[in-house]
Amino acid sequence: VIPACSSEKATDATDGNKTPVIAFVQTGADNDWRNAHTESVKQAAADHGYDLRFAEGQSKQENQLKALSSFVNQGVDVIVLAPIVETGWDNALEKAKQRGIPVVILDRQIKTDDESLYVTYIGADTYTEGQKAAQWLAGKTEGTAKVVELQGNPGASPTINRFNGFRDVIEDHPGIEIIASQSGEFRRSKGKEVMEALLKKHGKEIEVVYAHNDDMAIGAISAIEDAGLKPAEDIIIVSVDAVRAAFDAMVAGKLNCTVECNPLQGPLAMEAVAKILAGEADSLDKKTLIEDTVFEMEQAKDFIDSRKY
Ligand code: AHR
């Protein structure tokens, strides 16, 4: 599948048009967080008066690579890439570099030996999110718990970082044990499916669910309820994102805690794009990490009305 682009122009995107043409290659549209992220980038581009060309990879790197290649051929001014996985981007980014197209990496990180392939990275501190989830859990359980982990999609930087950050903290809490860890692909339906299987296998041994995002936690909540158990009471649940649906679940007493991962990254991304277009790329930091908050069930009702996504 070649992802759809939002506007059709000929081979050189800037010909006869002074409006900067920015391409945004998104991972997919698989959950509330992702959709809020897409909207934030689109809105920020519109606020800057840019012509935004959008493609989403339907959760496949292959599709994102095709979109990148297409935008390079179109000769857009800047490419913003939210990479589904960390590795495998060098060839595509090398082609952008050869064509003189600067690239901003947004949301998820890439691994490369050649840091000159992108101008700047902007995203959440997903390693710290994993640490915060573990710190909260250590406090809540006084350092003793049997945990099942629902991971995001394999190879994605938030999956790797939330996995490592969590473990680096529980290392100091030997009573916290991860008894199972599986991918729920950052999806609600998959989170439910994986949790059903884990409940069948481990039953009442499971004391805690640590989900790498809220959507999977919400899927797990329905599996827990279907199994006749009370989420947030019989099984403690901590997840990441702090989307509106997580606040709904917390207010309903079904989710204990969510660590924020702010998807409203569009303004920062477009500020970076503006600097690049103004010839000030050198003034940008190589890495900008966005600060996150931790929200507990008890505070949820105070924040729910202000949650837009
Ligand atoms: O990269 C950020 C993560 O990706 C969010 O936590 C998740 O919900 C999304 O799919």
From TrEMBL:
Keyword Protein biosynthesis appears in the UniProt entry: no
Swiss-Prot/TrEMBL keywords: Signal
Keyword Signal found: yes
GO terms for cellular component: cell envelope
Recorded GO MF terms: carbohydrate binding
All residue ranges annotated as the Periplasmic binding protein domain in the record: 22-280
CDD domains: PBP1_galactofuranose_YtfQ-like
Family: Belongs to the bacterial solute-binding protein 2 family.
Protein's UniProt name: ABC transporter periplasmic-binding protein YtfQ
Native source species: Novipirellula herctigrandis
